Amino acid sequence: MRPRVSVQDSALRNGNFSLRINPVRSEDAGLYEAQVAYHTGVQSCQVELGVITVTLSPPSPVVENEPLLLSCNSSHRASLVETCWFHNGRLVPTSGTFCSLHGALSILRPAMSDAGSWRCQLRYSDNEIISAKYNLQILGFDGPTNPVVYAAAGSAAD
């Protein structure tokens, strides 16, 4: 896992044996065990790392009015019960242009207003709730709805 894994050597003296993984990948999910040998014995602990991923299809850049699919997947072992999607902090109703199915959100005709922070929230049969964010960028025209712009002669027009 090198060079993504590090241990803070300075923290070891204070009894902090933390492992840092940056960036985390899907294949990093699983059980980790730490063993520390002292003069009198061995201390150990186990930590399970769960990973959640949000992927975009087709990959960026997304073009306005071209369908896209945001998928949310987790390494959690329980059965998925519910998926909720939030756009800029607001719950997205899954009807009309937004269709949600098995952890994925389909946006049939993405608009410039659909750009921004998206968060998927997964709820499992064991009541575990896991969420992740994705910053969606959309290429398109974010100008006036009327395509005619008037400018005074001799001035600048945008």
Automatic annotation (TrEMBL):
Residues 50-131 form the Ig-like domain. One of its GO terms (molecular function) is protein tyrosine kinase binding. GO terms for cellular component: external side of plasma membrane; extracellular region; membrane raft. InterPro entries: Ig-like_dom, Ig-like_dom_sf, Ig-like_fold. SUPFAM superfamilies: Immunoglobulin. It comes from the Eukaryota. It is found in: Cell membrane; Secreted. It holds the Pfam family Ig_2. It is a single-pass type I membrane protein. GO terms for biological process: adaptive immune response; interleukin-15-mediated signaling pathway; positive regulation of ERK1 and ERK2 cascade; T cell activation. Coiled coil: none annotated. Keywords: Adaptive immunity, Cell membrane, Disulfide bond, Glycoprotein, Immunity, Immunoglobulin domain, Membrane, Repeat, Secreted, Signal, Transmembrane, Transmembrane helix. Belongs to the LAG3 family. Lymphocyte activation gene 3 protein: Inhibitory receptor on antigen activated T-cells. Delivers inhibitory signals upon binding to ligands, such as FGL1. FGL1 constitutes a major ligand of LAG3 and is responsible for LAG3 T-cell inhibitory function. Following TCR engagement, LAG3 associates with CD3-TCR in the immunological synapse and directly inhibits T-cell activation. May inhibit antigen-specific T-cell activation in synergy with PDCD1/PD-1, possibly by acting as a coreceptor for PDCD1/PD-1. May function as a ligand for MHC class II (MHC-II) on antigen-presenting cells (APC), promoting APC activation/maturation and driving Th1 immune response. Interacts with MHC class II (MHC-II); selectively recognizes stable complexes of peptide and MHC-II. Interacts with FGL1 (via the Fibrinogen C-terminal domain). This is Lymphocyte activation gene 3 protein.
